[in-house]
Amino acid sequence: MTKQEALFSYCLRLGDNSLILGHRLSEWSSKAPIIEEDLALTNMALDLIGRSVAILKYAAEVEGKGHTEDDLAYRRPERKFYNNLLVEQPNGDFAVTIVRQFFNSTFEYLLYEELMKSKDETLAGIAAKTIKEIKYHLRHATDWMLRLGDGTPESHLRAQKALNDMWMFTDELFEMNEVDEILIKEGITVDLNMLKANWSKKINEVILESTLTVPTSTFMQTGSRQGIHSEYLGYIIAEMQYLQRAYPNAKW
Amino acid sequence: MLTEKEIYDILSEIPDPEIPVITIKDLGILQRVEVSENSCIVFITPTYSGCPAMKMIEDQIKEALAPHQITNISVKLIYSPAWTTDWISTEAKEKLRTYGIAPPQHSSVDKGSILGKPKELKCPQCNSKNTQMISQFGSTACKSLYKCLDCKEPFDYFKCI
């Protein structure tokens, strides 16, 4: 694998994580529990989709085959998507959405803080932009973890169930392959193992303060680095790509 | 062909699509203009990554230059240095306040703006400091929603980033 191929693949991973989570959050539009949350979740969806546009545009540039960010979003089959399994999981109840966001935003905060120092200027620039937004996302998710965990018996129960259900998707966030190896050597990305201890520490603090329990299960799901996904991604792609598949190059 | 300075001045007049009382220059979105023989590149910085107004701003730029026989225009988004509320001029902040939007209160380097909400946010209607946040996320990505406990008016606050 060349450096260029590795960078392309890495940009797809970053871009797909933003795109798919952005799509998931946008599903809350008009049906969040309260109007403030309708605004919050869709605002965050917008940040994430905006970030994916920037990253996929760069991915297309690195690939050098004349594709655009739209080609990459709307014409790629499911097996060529490299987002983490966590972000494609269905919204579930509000607790599931918050726990998914909390795990992911804590991870993104640590990752993008490192990417700001990347030797790749474009990625460093996007990271500097996006870290400001991630701070808001993380604060939002953390506030809700505390309120749900330390709220009513019902919200506590649901938050704990969501933690337990989402837990098996957390190890994969830190999984690395040849792409990471090549880019770490180039100073473009960071060794994800180095983020893990800090991630665990941060989420443990919030979970304990929320009066919830950190799951102990060691069974973990994996697959997305090879493009193998849970059943849910296919449905997202089908909905997202329908128009461009049915009417190629349609514009409006 | 107009000079870079002339083009920049024309574009400086373009109002922000969301907050038409201030221009894209006031907001710090318009960065610079580069002119070569028969093409023109305009560099703009998005306030937020997903700001839906960027496409409209791009169209407005092309529209503003069309009467000057400049058609070969490309608008490029730049992410670095990242946009910050520090780029909003003092005059523009005052315009925001008169328009009914509380302007950003801190410098973005101030930790308080990242970790907590501003301590004393003045109501843009009645100047009372007796205000409360309703929602961290407002009608657009760049704003939060507050209410004044004295005059009871809800208002937008331009978040510090």
Describe, in short, the structure shown:
The complex is a heterodimer of chains A (252) and B (161). With 252 residues, chain A is mainly α.
Key terms:
heterodimer; A: 252 residues; mainly alpha; Ferritin; 67% helix; B: 161 residues; alpha/beta; GMP Synthetase, Chain A, domain 3; four-stranded mixed β-sheet; three-stranded mixed β-sheet; 4 helices; 22% strand
Note down, in words, how this protein is organized.
The complex is a heterodimer of chains A (252) and B (161). Chain A is mainly alpha-helical. Chain A is 67% helix and 0% strand. With 161 residues, chain B is α/β, with parallel strands linked by helices. Chain B folds into 2 domains: 74 residues, Fe-S cluster assembly (FSCA) (GMP Synthetase, Chain A, domain 3), CATH 3.30.300; 71 residues, no CATH class. Chain B is 22% helix and 22% strand. A 4-stranded mixed beta sheet of chain B has the order 4-7-6-5. Chain B has a 3-stranded mixed beta sheet with strand order 1-2-3, with helices on one face. The longest helix of chain B has 13 residues. The radius of gyration of chain B is 18 Å and the shape is elongated. About 3% of the residues of chain B have low confidence. Chains A and B meet through helix 2 and helix 6 of A and loops of B.
- As laid out across the biggest beta sheet of chain B, the strand order is 4-7-6-5
Strand content of chain A: under 5%
Q: How can the largest sheet of chain B be summarized?
A: 4 strands, mixed
* Number of domain modules of chain B: 2
Helix content of chain B: 10-25%
- Total strands of chain A: the figure is 0
SSE string of chain B, helices as H and strands as E: HEEHEHEHEEE
CATH topology of chain A: Ferritin
Indicate the mean pLDDT of chain A. Answer: 96
Instruction: Give me the secondary-structure category of chain A.
Output: mainly alpha
**Unreliable sequence segments of chain B:** 110-114
CATH class of the largest domain in chain B: Alpha Beta
Write the CATH homologous superfamily of chain A.
Answer: Ferritin, core subunit, four-helix bundle
Q: How helical, in percent, are the residues of chain A?
A: 55-70%
CATH superfamily of the largest domain in chain B: Fe-S cluster assembly (FSCA)
Mean pLDDT of chain B: 86
Give the quaternary arrangement of the chains.
heterodimer
CA radius of gyration of chain A is: 18 Å
